[in-house]
Give the backbone structure.
Amino acid sequence: MIKLPKDQLQALIAKNAAALLDELCSDHSFVVNLGVGIPLLAVNYLHRDNIYIHTENGMVGVGPLAYGDQVHPDLVNAGRQPVTETIGCSYTDASESFGMIRGRHIHAAVLGAFQVDQQANIANWIIPGSTLLGVGGAMDLVAGAQTVIIAMTHCNAGKPKLVHQCSLPITAYHEADYVVTEFGLFHFVDGTPILEKIHPELSVQDVRNATEFDFSVADQLSHTLLL
Amino acid sequence: MPMARSKVMRASEAVSHIRNGDKVMVGGFGLRGCPFELVDALIETGQRELTIISVGGDSPGIGLGALLRSGQIKKMIGSFYNANREVAMARNSGQIEVVLMPMGNLAEALRAGGMGIPAFYVPVGAGTDLAVGKEVRVFDGRPHILVDALHADVSLIRAKASDALGNLVYSKTARNFNPAMAMAADFTIAVVDEIVEPGALSPDEIITSHIYVDALVLAGGCRHD
């Protein structure tokens, strides 16, 4: 099994999410929205220079996090973190920013999740009874982005997050396209999850043991990247 | 030619338009582009039973967080209150009602409210707990929910600069919900960091036309009083 400190585990998942974005973007300009947490870390591992980051508070062309005198008081990402501009960046108001999402102009969204199920349903907005009260852009992003990538740890306190049927409130139905965890990469094709990549130190049976939903295995099963 | 009545006024005078029970939109996202001076002035008025339409609840004790603590809010319509858990606590204790909306549905409801569109269909949220009771219609084989536009009595917004007419320009991600809210209220109050002469702003760069702006408040000073 994979024994890594939390920060390295998150970095491993982010690195493989970035590799997927690099693969998906081909040669055209590719606009990506990254959620707070593991997804945002993917920025550190992108290699393509034709990927542009969108943040739903109203910017296309988000640069790296800002530090020190780079910080501008009016410039943050959706997670309230100070960020920088890139050459060619632009600002919009919130209604247009979400119109970009809903209107299918965002090529990929990378988000975390609490659960993803057999039918590609996603639960990632609320855990009933908690003092968190917010949906934010989660429902907009999974319904609107052309490709939805869930980047998350494989289990939560030992319990699988890839389940037969989501028990937590649903964010959107049938919208997950890929799930990237430290165990591997699943691709939903025609509504069925297929394991396409696997951590080089794991067997398919290891993955099945930590996964509740049923999945098939790609003929060309390849390895995920290591840190 | 007689001069038009100036829109420039003190924050206290501007927010005196807000009455008990009003719906009030408040701009800002992630503590950027928030009209804090106007919210603080609203607290001073003591008006109560307010419905606040905003993306979130700012932070505990800051901006809308302070208005919540002062007990003047009856209901909040918004999207993301995780940065101020006092909102969830006030909801759980029955102090306030909270209506959650997907953030883009909220943004579009504001725009629609200002643009004369009473409601619109979107796929976002269909079938979820946030769509309970909403009308559903299928387009291209996909369920969509009918979302009602939002309109307010007063909007409190922030911009970077204004001319004396009330044309507004914004700064970076501080723009966020402010332009849509400017359009979606009967009376819109903008707090700005600078007020310049008409003509000093490039017409191509103006984001919010003065036709939406009823009152201007200069941030941090009384230069125009």
Remarks:
- The mean pLDDT of chain A is 96.
